[in-house]
Amino acid sequence: MSMWVTGANGFIGRHLVRELAGGGHVVHGVGHGALDPADARALGLQNWINGEVDAANLSALAAAHGLPSHVFHLAGGSSVGLSMERPFEDFSRTVASTARLLEWLRSFAPMSRLVVVSSAAVYGADHRGSIPESAAPAPMSPYGHHKLMMEQLCQSYVQSFGIRCMVVRLFSVYGPNLRKQLLWDICSRLRNKQRTLNLGGTGAEIRDWTDVRDVVRLLARVAEGPWQDNFGVINGGSGRGVSVAGIAEGLIGHWGGNTVVQFSGVARPGDPTSLLADNGRVLDMNFDWHIPLERGLADYVEWFRGQARA
Question: pLDDT category, 15, cuts 50, 70, 90?
Fold first, then answer.
């Protein structure tokens, strides 16, 4: 099968390309970032277009390689903080790119299966315990609002034009090659031998942490599994919550040393106190999360130290 990945040069995208190519699929990609042909092939991409997700680039891929059986849409904004600083840029990257992709699929590849990667940020802040997919969306940042707009666009194209689409709302994804957010920040400070880590928030914030290597297995399973309806939403979480303080302590333990963590007690804008998935739909797929958090954190520390030495 021919599978296309938008945003294939990003953190999750690169892992997904390896997963799909390792499963014997032909994978093509479009998105931002320079990749020479040798690097693209080493990643698992048969072809890479460095550019916008737009009709010209999508048609160029189709002319050269035929229509896709599946499209994984990962292109878009990836940071709550950046969406607060540059909301229109985040809108353009997330909502406008999705609109262009959907319009191209409507015109040229309406039978392709579309898997759209969204975010638990659409749920907002006021949740206790696990959150089902049926929970009313209440995003509290431009990032979350734009992800919800993206989902609504997809649903509208399913209802009006027969596009087939599954949305996967990811929670707190981490793993090798993640070069931003909490784990990168903590390891960067540990590398600099800071005796005390001063972090924002309270430390009690609960997140559903999932290793990217499991996440891409889930995305592939969703794409190839049976679809009862032309549109659906799945929580891409494990259903297990761990506090930010627990993550910090785990990283310090694998790093070694006696670094102390302190929290400011001040919540960051757009930062919910709890985001934990009700993972019933994932369990119904007989999907197993293979990488426990303890191993995932150890692997991340090992990767971070290795890339620092490179």
Answer: very high
Confidence of residue 74 (pLDDT cuts 50, 70, 90): very high
CB atoms within 10 A of CB 51: 12
Work out the average pLDDT over 226-235. 96
Residue 194 has pLDDT above 90, yes or no: no
Tokens of 19: 């997963």
Q: How far apart are CA 216 and CA 42, in angstroms?
A: 18
Token duo for residue 36: 């020479």
3-state secondary structure of 213: helix
User: Which CA distances in Å does 308 have to 62, 179, 196?
Assistant: 39, 12, 21
Q: CA-based Rg of the chain, rounded to a whole angstrom?
A: 19
DSSP annotation string for 53-120: SSHHHHHHHHHHH---SEEEE--S---HHHHHH-HHHHHIIIIIHHHHHHHHHHHH-TTSEEEEEEEG
251/297 Cα distance (integer angstroms): 6
DSSP 277: B
Residue 2: pLDDT band with limits 50, 70, 90: very high
Please state the length of the chain: 310
